[in-house]
Amino acid sequence: MSERANFGSKMGVILAASGSAVGLGNIWRFPCMVGENGGAAFILVYILCVMFLGVPVMVSEFLIGRRAKTNAIEAYSKLAPGTPWIWIGITGVAAAFLILSYYGVVAGWTLEYTVASAVGELSGAKDYTAFFNDFVSNPWKPVLYMAVFILLTHIVVVRGVREGIEKFSKIMMPLLLLIICVLVGCSFSLSGFEEGAAFLLRPDFSKVTNKVILDAMGQAFFSMSIGMGCLCTYASYFSKDTDLMKTAGSVATIDTLVALLGGFIIFPAVFSVPGLSADAGAGLVFITLPNVFHLIFQNVPWLGYIFSLMFYVLLMLAALTSTISLHEVSTAYIHERLKWSRKKAAWAVTAGCIFLGVFCALSFGVLSEIKLFDLTIFDLFDFVTAKLIMPLGGMFISIFTGWYLERSIVKAEVTNEGKLKIPFFKFYIFLLKFVAPVCIGLIFINELFK
Ligand code: TRP
Question: Ligand 1: which residue has its CA nearest to atom 10?
Answer without folding.
Answer: 225
